[in-house]
Design brief:
The chain contains one helix and no strands. It has one helix at residues 34-52. The chain is mostly helical.
Length: 55
């Protein structure tokens, strides 16, 4: 297919992404447990400390 202009001949894509719609239906506040915060800090704590400094 290299050397041919887009679109390539053949079967069309399974999903036409140009027709998709993105909707933000998340609530404004999302409850988070202390256990979830602990896991997040265990995985990403060093990264955030490097980016934003230790608090």
């Amino acid at each position: 297919m290299l050397g041919y202009p887009w679109p390539f001949p053949g079967r069309p894509p399974k999903h036409d992404l140009s027709t998709w719609t993105v909707t933000d239906d998340w609530p404004e506040h999302i409850p988070v447990t202390e256990a979830e915060v602990d896991v997040f800090e265990a995985w990403f704590g060093d990264l955030f400390a490097e980016l934003f400094g230790r608090s």
